[in-house]
Amino acid sequence: MELTKEIAYKFIKDFFRDKSLLFLGTGASCAVDPAFGMPALKDVLSEQVPEKISGATQKTEWGKVQKAFQNDEGLESALNKVLSQGLVAEITRITGAFIASLDRKYSLLISNREQEWPARNLLQKLVNNLPEGDRALNVVTPNYDLMMEYVCDTYDIPYINGFVGCVQKKIDWNVANRQVLYPDKIISRNRSKTVYKFKKHIRLYKVHGSLNYFFHNGDVIENSAWMWNPPGFAERVMITPGIEKYEGLQKFREELLKKADEAIRKEGSFLFIGYGFNDKHLEEYINRKLEYFQCPGLIVTKDSNSRIDALLEKAPNLWLVCRKPETGNESTFVYNRKFPAGLYINDKKLWDINEFTDEILGG
Description:
This protein has one domain. β12, α11 and β13 form a beta-alpha-beta unit. With 363 residues, the chain is of the alpha/beta class. The longest helix has 27 residues. The chain has 13 helices and 16 strands.
């Protein structure tokens, strides 16, 4: 069967008739600056980690990582060879400092509306179009940075992430839920009654941690005052490969994944923006939804990869919108396994989330 532009557009537009869970990947931040991506982090780690190596074990482990880099293994796969707690801690510290330097730069620009976050328009439309009976958009992200949070604050998009308090916030989803309630008066038979309703809002699950998450006094806290230059006693909560050696972080990761899995379980439709499918723990359940329950899904990303390609062949209702570099231009490629040849759209860059939103959902 031939995939035409009319068929592709109909599916994609119909996809947005229903509420979806949004997976927000690294590509959303790379659209602001490619330095948020894995290649840039790989270069930083390659430069700085050797200076922090201590002992023969760490030297051997880092040697395996360097060999993996030379063999063009992905960053996540390469770093899985690091098992020493001390070396994992250094990798986390270097990663945190590097991402924090980018986050600080762009937070000021975004907050002053001098820099656009490409997914902002899409995010606003998804929240505004939430059904009255289900006024929460679940967003799952592995990103450490706070690009989305800055956009939400700047453009008045309500969101909660489970943390409540003032400077040093702690997790309490029950209290967090109350932060997005508002009073509404109902008048019936000349009598007034006040009921509380949820604002249309985002429930954010940062399953790999965040620049502003720390261990402090036995708790995981959110403290944005520390995120760019944390004190020495504050350990970042950032999930990196090899993290199994950290019992505390692993326990927190299980809690993060539990909350994300609860959100995934409730949804029947899934939207992936700039997401590379690199987290086997998180995707164990989502892949089952896409493959065995045949839930509709849509991936919008600049470039595909072998993991995405393999999943597409197993999930009959999963669609891909991406770029095809081998064409020599920036054209769009649309694919679903029911249409083996796919579709090339030469005059559109729908893998660009701004252009995608304007074309599919209106500017």
